[in-house]
Amino acid sequence: MSGRIEARLAELGLNVPTAPVPAANYIPWVRTGNLVYIAGQVPMKDGKFLWVGKVGRDYTVEEAKEAARFVGLNVLSQLKTALDGDLDRVVRAVKLNGFVNCVEGFGHQPHVINGASELMIEVFGDAGRHARSAVGVAGLPFGVAVEIDGVFEVA
Amino acid sequence: MSGRIEARLAELGLNVPTAPVPAANYIPWVRTGNLVYIAGQVPMKDGKFLWVGKVGRDYTVEEAKEAARFVGLNVLSQLKTALDGDLDRVVRAVKLNGFVNCVEGFGHQPHVINGASELMIEVFGDAGRHARSAVGVAGLPFGVAVEIDGVFEVA
Amino acid sequence: MSGRIEARLAELGLNVPTAPVPAANYIPWVRTGNLVYIAGQVPMKDGKFLWVGKVGRDYTVEEAKEAARFVGLNVLSQLKTALDGDLDRVVRAVKLNGFVNCVEGFGHQPHVINGASELMIEVFGDAGRHARSAVGVAGLPFGVAVEIDGVFEVA
Questions:
Q1: Is C147 in the A-facing interface, judged by CB distances under 8 Å?
Q2: What value of ipTM does the predicted structure carry?
Q3: How many A/C residue pairs have CB atoms within 8 Å?
Q4: Which of A139, B37, C69, C81 gives B136 a disulfide partner, CB atoms 3.0 to 4.6 angstroms apart?
Q5: Nearest partner of C81 among C26, C25, C18, judged by Cα
Q6: Residue B105, Cβ neighbours under 10 Å: how many?
């Protein structure tokens, strides 16, 4: 708990939340070999959904970027659980997939998902740099604005 | 063919269909190391597409969940082919990605994709528990209601 | 540079472009073990976005297929960079994910993404055959018509 990454999180003033329970019949992460697959995370806190609505109508790009950063913290919370609480065992972020619940024709998915991508780099440094896809979708679970899943290499 | 998982399928009264032929210029699965990647499966049976339409307009959540379960059987059929017919070689389900062809603002993707997720758990037990993403999309191949791809760890 | 795949590209009259710089805060590829994850590529050339618009409204299926082929070349350009310029180190294409920015109800995603899939097979032969998903989305970065990411096994 008192590792390098925890110190970095404290330095950033970031609090990795308690890992949210999945909203349906799946599990939040699976490890296979040296990869951890994180299930799609949403802006859920204490069982409540935040940022419910469409980006480009209910939320600005900047607001949605905040949502993506929050979702990124939930990604980290699941990853932490997968690593028995020790984020120092993260070798690198490999891939993030970002889904933005947006109005037709919206094209600022990259700016939105940067909220999560920048978080990974702040926390892990160069090891946080990852490949990524960002797309705009017609709907997301419970109407949330952003969903992000990912793959991490771990020790 | 007479393995543990086949016995479980018989017990459940489930029939893994003959693996459908891809609808375009790709192959239905690729093995790399101990991972099998399954291409996006759709509700196709005997060359015909079932559940063609939008969830939230043409299909209820429960109907779409049935579609997802059917698509899950097609995922299993491809996996079975990848393993020379021996589903006992599945170490675990790693990740499912569920795409729901839905009306704008639809938010019940988790309930829909549970159709496939519950199937995996029924068939493989704890080894069927997987990470997952579920999103709502503007359109799917041939207008089908659900598409699901996945990654499995195999022996 | 003068390898087997480069010879094949020359034979096909294909020019793998200089790898485009990501449009946001991520990196274009990550290698983990024997897998290279390619970030979502778009039809970008010399810093400009091509094929900006909706398939089914602004572009026909055939035009969008050309866009997908172009995006496939950008996938190859990133892969080439990941392999220090030596595409002969590609063991096989594993998975492509194709996102088509389309009008509601559009169902020809498979035909569109074939543009990239056929390119992989032309270039790598049987090793280019891959698993695939193709879905239709509400919006893509900068309004482009097609985005494709992928996973490759490399030596």
A1: yes
A2: 0.95
A3: 100
A4: A139
A5: C18
A6: 14
Determine the Cα–Cα distance for residues C24 and C74; give it in Å rounded to an integer.
16
pLDDT given for residue B2 in this prediction: 63
- Cα–Cα distance for residue pair C3/C88, rounded to 1 Å: 6
Give the C-alpha separation, B69 to B12, whole Å: 13
- Over residues A48-68, the mean pLDDT reads 97
What's the pLDDT score for residue C2?
62
| Strand bridging mode C90-101 / C131-137 | parallel
- Cα–Cα distance list, B92 to B88, B125, B128, B131, B132 (Å): 10, 9, 6, 11, 13
> Hey, how many other C-beta atoms are within 10 angstroms of the C-beta on A62?
11
- On whether any CB of chain A is under 8 Å from the CB of C20, the answer is no
Domain ranges of chain C: 4-154
pLDDT band of B24, cuts 50, 70, 90 = confident
Q: Is B7 on the interface with C (CB under 8 A)?
A: no
Residues 35-64 of chain C whose Cβ lies under 8 A from any Cβ of chain A: 37-40, 54
Residue B99's pLDDT is: 98
Query: CATH homologous superfamily for C4-154?
Result: RutC-like (3.30.1330.40)
Query: What DSSP designation does C116 have?
Result: H
**Could you give the CA distance from residue A19 to residue B75 in angstroms, rounded to a whole number?**
29
Q: In this complex, do A28 and B153 lie within 8 Å of one another by their Cβ atoms?
A: no
Q: Give φ, ψ of B151 to 5 degrees.
A: -130, 135
Inter-chain contact B114–A25, Cβ cutoff 8 Å? Answer: yes
pLDDT tens, A19-42? 888 878 889 999 999 999 999 999
Q: What is the pTM of this model?
A: 0.96
Token reading at A69 = 């950063």
Both tokens assigned to C122: 């032309």
**Closest residue in A to B139 (Cα–Cα):** A138
Tokens at residue C43, please? 């039809």
User: Who's near C144: CB < 8 A, 6+ residues apart?
Assistant: A107, C42, C43, C44, C49, C50, C51, C52, C67, C101
User: Chain A partners of B134 at a C-beta cutoff of 8 Å?
Assistant: 24, 40, 141
* Average confidence score pLDDT of chain A: 95
To test the contact with chain B by mutation, choose from A26, A75, A78 the residue with the greatest count of B C-beta atoms within 10 A, namely: A26
Q: Is A2 on the interface with B (CB under 8 A)?
A: no
Flag whether pLDDT at C123 surpasses 80.
yes
- B62 sits in which H/E element: helix B61-82
In this predicted model, which residue has the larger pLDDT, B23 or C45? C45
Residue A2: what pLDDT?
A: 62
